[in-house]
Structures are given as C-alpha cells and as structure tokens.
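Re-running STAS domain-containing protein to confirm reproducibility after the cluster update. Everything else is unchanged from the original entry.
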Amino acid sequence: MGGNPAIFIWTESTLAGLISGLQRMVGTDRFRLALHGGGRDGVADDWAYISQYPTFEAGFTALTQVAATFGWGRWELVSLDRQAQRAVVRVHHHWETAIQKVLNVSWGSSYLGGKFAGIFQRHFGVAQCWAEQVASVVSGDKYDEFVIAPSNASLEDRLERMLATDDATRADLAVALERVRMEVEERAETEKRLLEKLSLIARQEDAIRALAAPIIEVWDGVLTLPLIGVVDSQRAADTMGRLLEQILQKKASYTIIDLTGVDLIDTATAEHLLKLVLAVELLGARCIITGIRPVIAQTMVSIGIDLSKLTTLASLRDGLTYCIDQTRKTRR
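Result of re-run:
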C-alpha cells in the first residue's frame, strides 16, 4: 500500500485472536508495556513523513489522514506546548479499540500511545517520552486521549522494575516469545505453500483454456481454431485475444474456425462468434467457418444471424482445401 509492504488481517477474528493470545501468555501489564514499546520503536517512517512538511503541525495533520485510511483512527492534536514539552492527542475509532470491544476487555491503547510517545520524543528532542492515556472508549469515554510528555523512567526501566517483582516473568516471557516466533514461522510457511498452490492452479487454468481451444497452423499462412463445447463471454474473450495474437505472429492470411465440436449455440454464443470473425478480418485475415451442424444452422437463422455475410464450408477438410487453393492463386 502506497509503495510499502502491507498485510491484510481480519480485525474481529485473526488480529483479535493474535492479540488476546499474546496477552494470555505474558499478562496484561507486560502486554501493555510490550505494545507501548512496539509503538514507540516503529515510528521511523512516521517521523520521516512528518519531516517532509515545513512545520510539525502540518506534517502531523498530513499523517492523520494516512492513519485514518489504514485503520489507525482519526487523530486530533488537541494541544501542543513546546515550552512545557507537553502534547495532548485525541483519537476516534482505531483498531486497538475495535479489538477490545470484540474481546470485551479494557487494556488501554498502549500501542497507539507508544507511537505518539515515539513521535513527540523526536519532536521535543528528549531521551524518552511517555504517553499517559487519560480517556478510553472501552471505559465509556467518547474517545481515547493521551497526554505525552518527557519521562525520567524509560520503558526499559519500567519493564525492569516489573521483572524484578516477578521471578517467573523472565522465563514466562521467553516462552511466550518463542511460541509467537514459532507461530509466525508456521504461518509464513503456510502462506508460502498456499501461494505455490495458487500459482500452480493459475498455470493449470491457462493450460486448460489453451487445450479447450487450440490454435494450430495447418498450412503456411493458415490457422485453424477448433471450438468444442459452450463458448461463453470469458472463453470468447480469451480465445479472441490468443487468436489475434497468433494471426499477427504468424502473419496468417486465413483463419478457419471449426464448429464441429459445438453441440449447442445460443444468441450470446452467436454474437461472440460474429465478433471473433469481425476482429479477425479487421487484421486483414480471411475468416472461414466450418463444421456448422444443421441444428446449429437452424438456430442461427432463427435468431436472426445473417449467414450470407460469412464464408461457410461443410467440413474442416473443405475449409483447408479452400484456403490452400486461394493461397496458391494469390502467389501465381
């Protein structure tokens, strides 16, 4: 999206399930800190985008439009005091809130808070900032609101203090991270296998379409296209494209369209056939129709198709003989 690698995830199932699984493995407090840190550490591109503009306010406003497009909600810079190094940001309708509503929990929007902390940390030019969430939609407020200011305690300090109070935390966190790593690897491998299968299916479909309507050069400058079965809109368009390409490549003067294998024809099929004949002749090649069965001829006449405008012969053999004779006469 916009030239950047992206992934599409269902919010109410896949993303909510992934987030809730992480929370269960590491606990709510560690989960919040981890999300805050992830948001803070992932703002390099956001800051680069903001820095393109003449002022921070202009860049931040532009970034809010991008954020809204990609599920990060509608951001509002409520206030910015550079002297006091304090900012207030308000957010409506973002993905963390949506997930918590689905799961019926109230964890707070730590990842988004971390993102704001990282942005204003760079703007204020300080070692670290902290985003304190003072309003939350899942707690009954109309919006999420964050107060961002410099902090003496970094996220790493807060995490270390938490780890120091829980002897099992380090082991638990390591296990959780290993489980997540394994899940990510498994999903990547599954995605790779699915892409390979889709590619194989696409190649097989191309091969089947080519076999269903093979284009054969039966004589110098003479192509034949035997049609079999039902000719629908998709098949007609595909066949026309391949046939016209072959006419240009082979510099064909004649094209024989053989209907021996067509059991039934309706108005739509007849129209596709006429369009195919017209397209061939627009390229300067003569189009011959062969193998029209009596029942098909009756059907074409009954639905108003003027066969007098078409060069028709009884069989593919007759069509080939006709084209060879015409080719020889032209060369004399």
